[in-house]
Design goal:
Layout (H helix, E strand, L loop, with lengths): L2 E6 L5 H10 L7 E7 L5 E7 L2 H10 L6 E7 L14 E3 L3 E9 L2 H10 L11 H13 L3 H9 L4 E9 L6 E6 L4 E4 L4 E4 L11 E4 L5 E4 L4 E4 L5 E2 L3 E3 L15 H7 L1 H9 L17 H7 L2 E6 L1 H16 L4 E6 H4 L10 E7 L5 H12 L4 E6 L5 H5 L2 E4 L12 H21 L4 H22 L2 H8 L7 E6 L3 H16 L2 E6 L16 E6 L5 H12 L4 E7 L10 E6 L7 H20 L17
Parallel strand pairs: 16-17, 16-18, 18-19, 19-20, 21-22, 21-23, 23-24, 24-25
Antiparallel strand pairs: 1-4, 1-10, 2-3, 2-4, 5-6, 6-7, 7-8, 8-12, 9-10, 9-11, 11-15, 12-13, 13-14
Helix pairs in contact: 1-2, 4-5, 7-13, 7-14, 8-13, 9-13, 9-16, 13-14, 14-18, 15-18, 16-18
Bound molecules: 5-amino-5-deoxy-1-O-phosphono-D-mannitol.
Pfam families: GATase_6, SIS
Keywords: Aminotransferase, Cytoplasm, Glutamine amidotransferase, Repeat, Transferase
InterPro entries: GATase_2_dom, GFAT, GFAT_N, GlmS/AgaS_SIS, GlmS/FrlB_SIS, Ntn_hydrolases_N, SIS_dom, SIS_dom_sf
């Protein structure tokens, strides 16, 4: 999704802006641009189709000086990816605007503005903001007044920033549905759509709230709420890592983040479990009371986070004995659902800014859920701020578009939550709790062990490089792990992949089986093993190419058409987390062989902040 960076300083800011855009590249984009104004009121705009590096090269060739500027990476929604559609957009020679999100009423506004004589040079919805600000300024008042009147006319979700060449030390920003954070410096101030963009210039941040408008100069930041009242927002000291944007010894962020999983899980567990039990209070103030009263769990999420929810559904019902539904946020938010008594809503999200998940949370809060909890990876994100309880996954910044450590840490946090719920409801005995907690203690070492299969899986990946389709099979909580595996493969290698609950094969997908259809099976040694073996036979009998990631004690023999990848025996409860890792490695190596853009797959964005 789009990214915004802005700066008001005494020094030249172009490099800060470009570095900020680089740090936002992981979000996905197709063009980049910036506009900088200097003390002599010269405004220079530079936009390029493609990578931030292309913009940086253009800047090297044609340096842009000035202390106030805005910059943007665009992910096309209205109008194709092109230089004309790249931000900043301008009205005349004075007003420059960047914008994340969607202006839903841009068509009627465009019509009104055209009647007023404005000429549009792009197909974007954003350009209406620039012309509206220009128009409102003509009607009188300051840039802030004009901007306040402008945003009052906008419908949709946006984070937007405006700059006026004639007023070169001021930026005005508005947040409505798309995050904006202000970075506080000494004698200089910054803003961005994600604090990560600014970590090289400051660690002190103010998060704008819904409806806030901020006026930012070198020496001051003034914030006004939706009613126009001056408000104070708390200053947060960021603890995010400095070097999150550094790949270190790894070739890709996805690879780095896959290998970070043992330490990420240690961080998730820290202070939340002791030798034998889950410390319920550590899940958040009031968590204990909420869990005691909970009679139903409703999980809402998208993509990989949804898959984590699907695993958790098995756990909530089989371990804690509490009914659980899981739904994709974009469906839930437009469905006329029935709220069950004492139902706890749990949103799952790496970014905490996924538009559909956030909208579902807001809707659910109106519809009588007992409490809203979130399992999230980004402190200060909208989901965290708007939920009653936030359980942070502490995975560290995840930059690769393909989610890896966010997923396994979500599962780790959810397993703790399920255990805590069962304990509070009396369905999980002290012995059972101790057994789960001991498994959680062993988990980081087991994930470490899973990562040692990297070389073997790299060799195996060769078999998939010329394939156009793949089928992943699992049963029980390994069915959603198969879903996650197929999502990973399709998003980074562009191989069409499907996941099926293995028992469902004969109800349709068996028709697809032939020698060109690799079938990847997740086969832990659990009570469904014999059933799964029958499903595997169904594939074998039809000439399918099987790749079975099997518990070494499960008794599989390699044979024609069936490759066995023996996995060490791991505790049953944590096995879904363990088996995720070889699946991530497989997708990664297939994508490498295919030469795709692993960290920024085509058409995808890291944080999906539009509907
Ligand atoms: O930030 P979120 O977890 O809310 O994001 C949800 C999905 O967009 C995300 O998981 C997506 O499916 C990933 N690209 C999958 O790897």
């Amino acid at each position: 999704m789009c990214g915004i960076v802005g700066a008001v300083a005494q020094r030249d800011v172009a490099e800060i802006l470009v570095e900020g855009l680089r740090r936002l590249e992981y979000r996905g984009y197709d063009s980049a641009g910036l506009a900088v104004v200097d003390a002599e009121h010269q405004l220079n705009r530079l936009r390029r189709l493609g990578k931030v590096q292309i913009l940086a090269d253009a800047l090297d060739a044609q340096p842009v000086l000035g202390g106030t500027g805005i910059a943007h990476t665009r992910w096309a929604t209205h109008g194709e990816p092109s230089e004309e559609n790249a931000h900043p957009h301008m009205s005349g020679e004075n007003i420059a605007v960047v914008h994340n999100g969607i202006i839903e009423n841009h068509e009627p506004l465009r019509e009104i503005l055209t009647q007023r004589g404005y000429v549009f040079t792009s197909q974007t919805d954003t350009e209406v903001i620039a012309h509206l600000v220009h128009w409102e300024l003509e009607q009188g008042g300051s840039l802030l007044d004009a901007f306040q009147r402008t945003v009052a006319q906008l419908h949709g979700a946006y984070g937007t920033v405006v700059m006026d060449r004639r007023d070169p030390e001021r930026l005005i920003a508005a947040r409505s549905g798309s995050p904006l954070v202000i970075g506080l410096g000494i004698g200089e101030n910054f803003l961005a759509s994600d604090q990560l963009a600014l970590l090289n210039v400051t660690r002190r941040f103010l998060f704008l709230e819904e409806g806030d408008i901020a006026e930012i100069t070198r020496r001051a930041v003034d914030i006004f709420d939706v009613e126009g009242n001056a408000v104070e927002r708390t200053i947060h000291e960021s603890t995010a890592e400095h070097d999150a944007a550094d790949k270190g010894k790894y070739r890709h962020y996805m690879q780095k983040e896959t290998f970070e999983q043992p330490s990420a899980i240690i961080n998730t567990l820290e202070g939340r479990i002791d030798a034998n039990s889950v410390l319920v209070e550590s899940l958040g103030h009031g968590a204990k009371e909420i869990l005691q009263k909970a009679e139903h769990i409703q999980i809402i999420a998208c993509g990989t986070s949804y898959n984590a929810g699907m695993v958790a559904r098995y756990w909530f019902e089989s371990i804690a004995g509490v009914s659980c539904d899981v739904e994709i946020a974009s469906e839930f938010r437009y469905r006329n659902f029935v709220t069950r008594p004492n139902s706890v809503l749990i949103t799952l999200s790496q970014s905490g800014e996924t538009a559909d998940t956030l909208a579902a949370l807001r809707l659910a809060k109106e519809r009588g859920f007992m409490a809203a909890m979130t399992v999230c990876n980004v402190a200060g994100s909208s989901l965290v701020r708007e939920s009653d309880i936030a359980i942070m996954t502490r995975a560290g910044t995840e930059i690769g578009v393909a989610s890896t450590k966010a997923f396994t840490t979500q599962l780790t946090a959810l397993l703790m939550m399920v255990t805590a719920l069962g304990k509070e409801k009396g369905t999980v005995s002290a012995e059972k709790e101790a057994e789960i907690v001991k498994s959680l203690h062993r988990l980081p070492a087991q994930i470490e062990q899973a990562l040692t299969f990297d070389k073997q899986i790299e060799a195996l990946a060769e078999d998939f490089a010329d394939k156009h389709h793949a089928l992943f099979l699992g049963r029980g909580e390994f069915y959603p792990i198969a879903m996650e595996a197929s999502l990973k493969l399709k998003e980074i290698s562009y191989i069409h992949a499907e996941a099926y609950a293995a028992g469902e094969l004969k109800h349709g997908p068996l028709a697809l089986i032939d020698a060109d259809m690799p079938v990847i099976v997740i086969a832990p040694n659990n009570e469904l093993l014999e059933k799964l073996k029958s499903n595997i036979e169904e594939v074998r009998a039809r000439g399918g190419q099987l790749y079975v990631f099997a518990d070494e004690s499960a008794g599989f023999q390699e044979s024609d058409g069936m490759t066995i990848i023996p996995m060490p025996h791991v505790d049953e409860v944590c096995a879904p987390i363990f088996y995720t890792v070889p699946m991530q490695l497989l997708s990664y190596h297939v994508a490498l062989i295919k030469g795709t853009d692993v960290d920024q797959p085509r058409n995808l964005a890291k944080a999906v902040t539009v509907e």
